[in-house]
Design a protein that fits this description.
Layout (H helix, E strand, L loop, with lengths): L1 H31 L21 H39 L4 H22 L8 H22 L1 H21 L26 E3 L1 H6 L1 H7 L6 E5 H11 L4 H19 L4 E5 L11 H12 L2 E4 L2 H9 L4 E3 H8 L8 E5 L2 E2 L5 E5 L5 E5 L8 E12 L2 E11 L3
Parallel strand pairs: 1-2, 1-4, 2-3, 4-5, 9-11
Antiparallel strand pairs: 6-10, 7-8, 8-9, 10-11
Helix pairs in contact: 1-2, 3-4, 8-9
């Protein structure tokens, strides 16, 4: 059915080009007729039948010629349209409606400003050319600026939306049966929308994102770029057994994420060449900037680079640290001292959740279980450290 519909579209488009060519031919005939010698219009002309005047003959020849040219050019135009459609489909695949709307509004504003600026110069000889240049430049700039600043544009509209909501609450419709007011928002109306989240290689290999997704805390569109999958495949094909195991685990995590029914996963067919990036990290930053997305990662360096460029980063390590039980100064805890610390007389142990615990004056109790008093904590994106003071040894 698709092939039949395509042939119908080709026939319609060819017919339109033939019609357009014929119309151009008729206009061209009006331009050619004044250049035809007067002798051709004399009644004594024998090369034309008496019933076919010369003007009509020239018009028919021009219409037929240009219609034939339109027919010959129709395959070329169809090919150009197909290439244009494929280009837009490729670049709009990861573009949201909010970005398209912002770009369209910016272009309209730019065109309005361009025509207002070109209006005083309309009577000058170069006025029409200036109007064309201003429309192209300001239309592009308007779309580009508003696309980059779409978050600020939404904040400008927030007071207007709030005023509309307050008016809706005051003038809310009443129930026909009981005269009760309906809520300002319908039950299925959600003014908030979750953002796009881009997964990098480290967070996929880490695997904890799968547990977060299963609990339902991961919302919105989750994007896995194609170049991230290629990097996972390269790690899985490594000759190093440890890297190969990590890569295969990452591919398994991707498969499990795709099987979750409540999670929307999209594989973005974006290459580093299209994003003009030299590495996977720079490609992730460029992709997040172009679609207004957030990067999900456990990579400390990528976290810092993205934050420098104004990209929001969701670090799974920060989430894990935030969910760890909080220890307050003055609390006592029992811990096994297993090794020496970096500073003199320090001992190091670990809590059940893997948090490092530094024990002051604990060097002499390595291999023993002691009771310590919490003194302070140090929280970083790389993890959490707890410091404590030795209180007493605990006998088994």
């Amino acid at each position: 059915m698709t092939e039949g519909f395509g042939k119908i579209v080709q026939m319609i488009f060819s017919g339109l080009l033939i019609l357009l060519g014929g119309m151009i031919g008729a206009q061209a005939a009006q331009f050619i007729l004044p250049m035809v010698p007067e002798a051709w219009f004399c009644p004594e002309t024998t090369w034309l039948p008496m019933w076919l005047p010369c003007k009509i003959f020239v018009t028919i020849i021009s219409v037929v010629l240009f219609a034939f040219i339109g027919l010959m050019l129709s395959p070329l135009f169809l090919k150009m349209l197909a290439l244009t459609g494929a280009f837009f489909e490729t670049h709009l695949r990861t573009t949201s409606w909010s970005e398209i709307t912002s770009a369209t509004v910016g272009m309209i504003v730019g065109l309005i400003i361009a025509n207002l600026l070109a209006l005083p110069f309309s009577d000058l000889p170069f006025g029409s050319y200036l109007a064309v240049v201003l429309n192209i430049v300001l239309g592009y700039l308007g779309a580009r600026i508003l696309l980059k600043r779409q978050n600020d544009f939404r904040s400008v509209l927030t007071p207007i939306q709030g005023l509309r909501e307050r008016i809706s609450m005051i003038r809310g419709p009443k129930s026909e049966n009981h005269g009760e007011e309906h809520p300002a928002y319908p039950e299925d109306d959600h003014p908030w929308c979750a953002g796009k989240k881009i997964l990098d290689t480290s967070v996929i290999i880490d695997g904890r994102i799968l547990d977060v997704a299963r609990t339902g805390f991961l919302e919105g569109l989750v994007i896995i770029p194609r170049f991230v999958l290629l990097e996972l495949q390269a790690v899985a094909d490594s000759t190093d057994p440890a890297r190969r195991t990590r890569g295969r685990r990452g591919l398994d995590v991707v498969n499990e994420l795709q099987r979750l029914q409540d999670l929307q996963i999209e594989i973005a067919d974006m290459t580093l060449k299209v994003l003009k990036a030299e590495s996977v990290d720079s490609g992730l930053v460029a992709l997040a900037e172009s679609i207004g997305g957030q990067i999900l990662t456990t990579d400390y360096n990528l976290n810092k680079i993205a934050q420098i460029q104004g990209i929001r980063v969701l670090n799974v390590n920060d989430l894990a640290n935030a969910l760890k039980p909080m220890l307050l100064p003055g609390e006592t805890i029992i811990i096994d001292v297993i090794r020496e610390g970096k500073e003199p007389h320090q001992g190091v142990g670990y809590l059940d959740d893997g948090t490092m615990f530094v024990v002051e004056d604990g060097e002499n109790y390595i291999g023993k279980r002691v009771e310590v008093v919490v003194t302070s904590m140090l929280q970083t994106s790389a993890g959490r450290m707890v410091f404590g003071r030795f209180r007493r040894e605990v006998r088994s």
